[in-house]
Structures are given as structure tokens and as C-alpha cells.
Amino acid sequence: MSTEPASPSAPPLAVVSLLPAQRRQRIVDFLRRHGAVTLAQLEQALEVSLSTLRRDLDGLAAEGMIDRTHGGALLRQQGYTAFEPDSVASSELSPREKRAIGAAAAATLQPHQSVIFDSGSTVLEAARAAVQRGIPFTAVTNDLAIAQVLGGSSQVQVHVLGGHLRPGSQTLVGDALIEAARAIQADVLLCGAHAITDGVITETSPEVAAVKRALMRAAVCRRLLADASKFRPRTFMQVATLAEVEEIICDEALAIEEAERIRTLGRRLTLVPVPA
Fold first, then answer.
1. Rounded to an integer, what distance in angstroms lies between the CA atom of residue 106 and that of residue 17?
2. Is residue 247 within a helix (H) or strand (E), and if so which, with residue range?
3. CA 246 to CA 224: how far, in whole Å?
4. Angle at 209 between CA 104 and CA 88, to 5 degrees
5. Which spans of this chain does the record mark as coiled coil (predicted)?
6. How many CB atoms lie within 10 A of CB 220?
7. Which run of H or of E encompasses 23?
8. Exposed, middle or buried by CB within 10 Å (0-12, 13-18, 19+), for 261?
């Protein structure tokens, strides 16, 4: 047996000390994948201090590569409004927050309710948590990944709205789906959003926005599931206003001014703690 000490394994890429130029390039690459991020999301992804990240973002903004926002950054405005990350990139951001929000949303469901599950990574977490509860209910969705999760429970009757599959996603959209939604009157809708700005919910895709509007009309109670990073500059297509939903479920990092806006509208706001 060799007595030579084992060579230490290389540290993960995220914790390797990077030169400022390398670190800033990683930030730009991250934004190209996600469109917009918060400082907290960058801190988790790059394992860099907040003070260093602020300096990097300020430098990139001065160079005209990004736009600074309150608590984060986004692609230059001319590219951001129609930018849409793929489903894998979306699921990488704020995973702990999404799980906590999804669990809180699932906890509101009652046995034998009819529930519409909109597409999106946070709503997917709600579907997983709902299945774990083991209660019987009827589910409707336009997302194939969510349908598979819900179909794993013998307690859940799953209806998938037909349409055509959006490229690069597991979301069904289209006129046929919107028409089918007109025949539904569900108890609850669990809905996601790409961005929430000044009380307006927006999406990057006209097709996705049209489907979300149809699903909102198909439910008696509408619950919006959105982590704090979704409160950011608006994107291309308006879906609805916060006044059109009954409850917003978010994490405790939500800015005070956003929470005040929601309460002023008379909407119920549920802020959930996020486990470390």
C-alpha cells in the first residue's frame, strides 16, 4: 500500500479565487442565462461577498453591460423585456425560496378541491408538496412536468389541458387550450409570474401571458406564487394586476415597499420563512 499522501482534490469552481475580470465575466454569463438576478442569488451562485458583488455590478453598469436595480442587476433594458430563460436556468434560481413558497401554497389546499396548477418552477414545487400531503383533489395543468409529479399520487385526478408544446419547455399553450379553459370553474389557481412591477404581473411570451389570463378566469380563488426576486422591472406582456388575485405567497425577503403596496390593495400577503 502506498504511503504517499493523497493529492488534495481541486476546490469547486465557485470557491476558486478569481481575478476581478474573470469574476465579472461570470456575472455577465450568469445574467445571459437568467436575464435578471438579485445580489442574494449571485452570492449563493458565485460564493462572493456582497460588498465585492456590489463593486463588480457597479463597474459592469458603468461599462454599459448591465443595468443596476434595487438589490440586483439585469440585462440591458432593450434586451431584458423579451428575455426568457430556459426552464433549467429558471429552476436554478432561489431553490430554497421556491420550495418554501410551494410548501406554503400546498398547505392551503383542502381535500376534494379542484386546483389549477399553472406552469413554472415555483408552482412545480407546490405540486410536489401537494402530493406529499397525501390528500385527494382534482388537478388541472398545462405543464407536462407538473402533470407527471401530480400523476405520481393515486389520490390526485389529473387533467392536462391540450395545446402545443412551447420549444425548450414542458408548457402547453395555444388557442385550443384557452378555449378548453373556458369550460373550467376550479376552486383554486396556483399561478407563477416572470415579473411583478408596480402591482402589474408580466410575462415575456404573448402565448404564455394569454394562457395565464385564461387560467385566471377559470378559477374562483387565485394565488400568486412568487419569490422576492420576481418583484423587478416589467417584461413584455401584461397578464393581470395584483388586484385580480386573492393572495400573494412570497418569501420574507420581499421589500417593505412592495409588501405595503400589496396590503394597500387589500390583497392577502403571506410571507414564508426560508430555511437556511
1. 41
2. strand 247-251
3. 8
4. 60
5. none
6. 11
7. helix 20-34
8. middle
Q: pLDDT tens digit string along 221-243?
A: 999 999 998 998 888 899 999 99
What is the CB neighbour count within 10 angstroms for residue 215? 27
**3 state DSSP class of 169:** coil
Question: Does position 13 have pLDDT exceeding 70, yes or no?
Answer: no
Distance CA 247, CA 272 (A): 13
d(CA 218, CA 196): 21
Give yes or no for a contact between 85 and 41, defined as CB atoms under 8 angstroms apart: no
Give the chain's domains with CATH numbers: 13-80 (1.10.10.10), 88-272 (3.40.50.1360)
Q: How far apart are CA 49 and CA 67, in angstroms?
A: 20
CA distances from 17 to 8, 29, 37, 60, 177 (A): 17, 17, 22, 19, 50
Q: Kindly report, residue by residue over 127-170, the tens digit of the pLDDT.
A: 999 999 999 999 999 999 999 999 999 999 999 999 999 888 89
Q: How many CA atoms lie within 13 A of 264 on its CB side?
A: 8
Question: Torsion angle of alpha carbons 257, 261, 267, 273, nearest 10°?
Answer: -10
Q: Is 18 helix (H, G, I), strand (E, B) or coil?
A: coil
Alpha helices by DSSP H, 35-142:
39-46, 50-62, 77-80, 87-92, 95-107, 121-133
Burial of 105 (0-12, 13-18, 19+ CB in 10 A): buried
As to burial, measured by CB atoms within 10 angstroms (0-12 exposed, 13-18 middle, 19+ buried), residue 19 is exposed
**225 strand-pairing partners:** 249
- pTM of the entire structure? 0.76
